[in-house]
Amino acid sequence: MGYAWGFKKWAAELADSTRAELGLGPLDRLEPRALAEYLAIPVYELSNIAAYDPRAQHLLTVEPEAFSAVTVFAGPRRAITHNDAHAPTRQNSNISHEIAHGLLRHPPTPALGDTGCRSWNQDIEDEAGWLAGCLLVTEQATFAVARGAWSIAEAARRLAVSEAMIRFRLNGTGAVKRVQRFGAR
Fold first, then answer.
1. Which one of 19, 20, 68, 127 has the fewest beta carbons within 10 angstroms of its own beta carbon?
2. What is the pLDDT of residues 25-40, one digit of tens each?
3. What pLDDT digit, counting tens, does each position of 140-170 carry?
């Protein structure tokens, strides 16, 4: 997908201002559940649903990769259900991704299309994925890694994300190339 012109810069600014509303600096860890609470978006664990609906247990134990998270709408209100069988770092990404849909004001869409197959809009998923990354790993954090202040592993630990998320953000921001080309920012 090609993002709309200026989307990435705008998303980074939105993430920075959202983090600032929570009193977070650019190198502070974002707790997605705290952001959801601040935005009045309830977050539910799939394991709680499995307690009264055994079909959810399948997604926790047999096929945990089949379900990450979903936003459920009730009129203008939304709630997030996420798979708490995933690693905590993945849960942080999953919840942040769903929060990003809300911050981007993506409209609700049906889960299944007319043929019974999963309905998927790659453009809005990519936008939510980008904003989620900006929320969890700021551009300033990518420069801390690119300058050698933090290793990828240390950044992942400090920010409670996966090393893959750190690499995604390093690549997306071009921090390593920018530091190599222009020195410290």
1. 20
2. 999 999 999 999 999 9
3. 999 999 999 999 999 999 999 999 999 999 9
Report pTM.
0.91
Q: Which residues contact 24 (CB under 8 A, 6 or more apart)?
A: 30
Six-digit token string for 104: 């981007």
Identify the pLDDT of residue 119.
76
Taking the mean position of all CA atoms in its chain, how far away is CA 128? Answer: 7
Backbone angles phi, psi at 78, to 5 degrees: -135, 155
Residue 45 phi/psi, 5-degree rounding, is -90, 140
Establish if 185 belongs to a structural domain.
no
CATH code: domain of residue 114: 1.10.10.2910
**How many domains does the chain contain in total?**
1
| Residue that is written with structure tokens 């993002």 in the block | 3
Sign of torsion, CA 136 138 144 146? positive
Question: Greater confidence, 172 or 117?
Answer: 172
